[in-house]
Design goal:
This protein is α/β, with parallel strands linked by helices. It has 10 helices and 15 strands. Strands 3-2-1-4-5-6-11 form a 7-stranded parallel beta sheet, sandwiched between helices. A two-stranded parallel ribbon has the order 7-10.
Length: 304
């Protein structure tokens, strides 16, 4: 099987390509940079071919996919700066990447009869209540522009293709790029106390674990909507920070605050990001490990 992966300069795309190569799949990575810009894994360097691609260029997307003729596309590329997406000067670009680019990838996938796996987010939901969101829930109402564009990306994929996976994740962290753990450990080293919200509830996703699941999925025909985060129950960002500070050995005090008390975010965040993952097991997929174990392995690999 030949897999084309977008966004390999980011956390997830990097891990997807490395995992695919490691399990013997033929993988081609792409991103907007002239050359692959991600880190190299501690174990082995990325050995997959790399193609520069601007996914907002419809002609370039069509020509690239037609030339490579992949059996499957894992679409990781996205605008993910949630607060910056709220700025009026950025909205056109955010839409071009998350909506138009996704549409072009889906159209190209259809033209070569390739499966497509699109990475989406808990932010497509409004975050109300406490009931875990089901993969096939259609009560969306995103709270911010990023979430709206990711939802429109979902709709583009589902409207164009029959052979698609839409996988929603939350609170991603990985070796390649910025994430909450890296940021908070850096802050914790220079501060006696940090404030972290305790009324936004969800579960983290280690991209290394997710990459394995996505490769498992793309080798099947179990199409549809899925939720995929690490196991271990629902927690707050405060709980998350307390755990990785403890594992790392930081004595920095973590002060729980409400979203309103925190008050620094430009984009509204959903308070209920509980994603029900039972469909994974029902469809025969192996779930992701416990998030505490994922944190332990991540800290060992990241060398923070």
């Amino acid at each position: 099987m030949k897999i084309f992966v977008t966004g390999v300069g980011g956390q997830l795309g990097h891990d997807v390509v490395n995992h695919a190569v490691g399990r013997g799949l033929e993988a081609v990575g792409s991103d907007i940079a002239p050359r692959y810009s991600g880190i190299q894994d501690n174990s082995e360097a990325v050995t997959a071919p790399y193609v520069q691609l601007d996914i907002t260029d419809q002609k370039a997307v069509a020509e690239t996919i037609e030339k490579i003729k992949p059996n499957a596309i894992i679409h990781c590329a996205a605008w993910t700066a949630v607060d910056a997406a709220e700025d009026e000067e950025n909205k056109k670009k955010v839409h071009a990447i998350n909506v138009d680019g996704t549409k072009y990838i889906a159209e190209a996938a259809k033209s070569v009869d390739a499966k497509m796996l699109y990475l989406s987010t808990d932010y497509v939901f409004d975050g109300k209540g406490e009931r875990p969101w089901q993969p096939d829930d259609k009560s969306y109402s995103p709270l911010n522009y990023y979430g709206q564009t990711k939802l429109e990306g979902e709709q583009a994929v589902a409207g164009i293709l029959e052979k698609f996976f839409i996988v929603r994740i939350a609170w991603a962290f990985g070796l390649n790029g910025k994430n909450f753990i890296k940021t908070m450990i850096s802050v914790g080293k220079t501060h006696d106390a940090v404030r972290v919200v305790n009324d936004q509830i969800g579960t983290p996703t280690y991209t290394l674990d997710l990459a394995r699941l996505l490769a498992d999925m793309i080798e099947t025909n179990q199409y549809g909507y899925y939720h995929a985060t690490n196991d271990g129950g629902y927690i707050s960002w405060y709980d998350f920070c307390v755990e990785f500070y403890q594992q790392y050995g930081l004595n920095t005090k973590v002060i729980p605050v409400t979203t309103a008390e925190y008050g620094l975010s430009k984009a509204a965040r959903p308070k209920n990001s509980r994603l029900d993952k039972s469909k994974l097991i029902e469809s025969g997929f192996k779930p992701l490990p416990d998030w505490k174990d994922a944190v332990r392995r991540y800290l060992g690999e990241a060398g923070l």
